[in-house]
């Protein structure tokens, strides 16, 4: 048996599972499990284009990002009330806590909901109340990042930011997600400029499927502080050099990349090379209900397929805190905790 396929030792597996980590790339709508989709559809009398949980799950065979997004937006159609957003976010935080996540920065897509007549207040206050309650119940810290849908135009993004301003205290930043190819970062230059002026953090999905030029644009026109995915940076040595020198974080999502056919198999994933080249990369789940696992399933599959060492896991966990927007004192606390676990 090659080393790449050798099972992880029980001790290493436990170390991975219990190590404190931050999750920085999770779409809350992507944490909606099929069972919850059906339960909410029933509660809200929404009809779904799938007859059962099983037939919905059978549709989770994606060819690319767009084939996933079509199903992801259909799943999100069951979210109507404050309690729905609360239940979804609380369930994610409970699960994340059980997997050693001590801090989460969570994306949400308001346009997916406001376009269906759901009020911005319902979305943000439902999510926000779940973050407060999970913080109390699990001692997990969490923040929200409002994402603009890049397949829509910039005016819609500007209007969304405006509508969200009465709830400004409930989110720490803005992001950019949805269909990447054909919707480059510079399309959203003005709305990101406005968000930055409001003191919001700026991140953007770039280089998930699209070429390195999208990553350069996210950095140079949106002033993105982190790049979400960014795996296509591997095709541009000058960009890799820039990312390593500036320690610009890439929030990598390995199971997502394999499920969306960005890489044929986990053995082909570049995260180990990125780590070895000095990039600030960490492991995240993206849309855990759709891609076959939460953060630990991602860590375990990468560790096994790429023969990661405990030192690699330590580095990934440390990068997750380094790249987070948490207060510096809390960052130092968690970095010291990771040191303690690996000592
Ligand atoms: N990429 C772009 N948009 C998304 C994703 C993703 O991986 N997940 C949810 N929305
Ligand atoms: Zn994503």
Structure description:
An 8-stranded parallel β-sheet has the order 1-2-3-4-5-6-7-8. By secondary structure, it is of the alpha/beta class. Helix content is about 50%, strand content about 15%. Helix 5 (about 80-100) packs parallel to helix 7 (about 120-140) and helix 8 runs parallel beside helix 9. The relative contact order is 0.14. Bound molecules: hypoxanthine and zinc ion.
In short:
The chain is α/β, with parallel strands linked by helices. Helices cover 49% and strands 13% of the residues. Hypoxanthine binds at residues 27, 30, 65, 72, 177-178, 205, 208, 256, 286-287.
Please give a handful of descriptors for the protein shown.
alpha/beta, eight-stranded parallel β-sheet, 16 helices, 49% helix, binds hypoxanthine, binds zinc ion
Question: Which secondary structure elements does this structure contain, and how are they paired or packed?
Answer:
Elements: H1 10-18, E1 21-27, H2 34-44, H3 53-58, H4 65-76, H5 82-98, E2 101-108, H6 110-114, H7 120-138, E3 141-149, H8 154-164, E4 173-177, H9 189-197, E5 201-206, H10 212-220, E6 226-229, H11 237-246, E7 250-252, H12 254-259, H13 271-276, E8 281-283, H14 295-305, H15 310-322, H16 328-342
Parallel strand pairs: 1-2, 2-3, 3-4, 4-5, 5-6, 6-7, 7-8
Helix pairs in contact: 5-7, 8-9, 15-16
Tell the overall outline: globular
Bound molecules: hypoxanthine, zinc ion
Termini gap: 30 Å
Strand tally is: 8
* Helical content class: 40-55%
Tell me the strand order in the biggest sheet: 1-2-3-4-5-6-7-8
Class of secondary structure makeup:
alpha/beta
What is the number of helices?
16
Return the CATH class: Alpha Beta
* CATH H-tier superfamily: Metal-dependent hydrolases
């Amino acid at each position: 048996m090659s080393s790449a396929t050798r099972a992880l030792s029980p001790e290493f597996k436990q170390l991975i599972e219990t190590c404190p980590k931050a999750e920085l790339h999770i779409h809350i709508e992507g944490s909606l499990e099929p069972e919850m989709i059906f339960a909410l559809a029933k509660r809200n009398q929404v009809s779904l284009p799938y007859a059962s949980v099983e037939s919905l799950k059978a549709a989770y065979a994606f060819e690319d990002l767009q084939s996933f997004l079509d199903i992801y937006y259909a799943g999100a159609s069951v979210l109507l009330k404050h309690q729905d957003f609360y239940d979804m976010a609380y369930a994610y935080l409970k699960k994340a806590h059980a997997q050693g996540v001590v801090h989460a920065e969570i994306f949400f897509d308001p346009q997916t909901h406001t376009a269906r007549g759901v009020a911005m207040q319902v979305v943000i206050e439902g999510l926000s109340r779940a973050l407060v309650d999970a913080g109390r119940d699990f001692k997990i810290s969490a923040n929200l990042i409002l994402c603009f849908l890049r397949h829509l135009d910039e005016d819609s993004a500007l209007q969304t930011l405006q509508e969200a301003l009465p709830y400004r205290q409930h989110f720490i930043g803005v992001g950019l997600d949805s269909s990447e190819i054909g919707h480059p970062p510079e399309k959203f230059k003005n709305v990101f400029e406005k968000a930055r002026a409001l003191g919001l953090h700026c991140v953007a999905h770039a280089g998930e499927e699209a070429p390195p030029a999208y990553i350069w644009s996210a950095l140079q026109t949106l002033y993105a502080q982190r790049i979400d995915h960014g795996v296509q940076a591997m095709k541009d040595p000058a960009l890799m050099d820039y990312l390593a020198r500036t320690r610009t974080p890439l929030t990598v999502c390995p199971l997502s990349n394999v499920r969306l056919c960005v890489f044929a198999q986990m053995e082909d994933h570049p995260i180990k090379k990125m780590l070895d080249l000095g990039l600030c990369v960490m492991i995240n789940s993206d849309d855990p209900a759709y891609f076959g696992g939460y953060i630990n399933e991602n860590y375990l599959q990468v560790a096994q397929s790429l023969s990661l060492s405990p030192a690699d896991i330590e580095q990934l966990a440390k990068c997750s805190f380094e790249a987070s927007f948490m207060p510096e004192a809390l960052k130092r606390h968690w970095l010291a905790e990771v040191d303690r676990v690996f000592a």
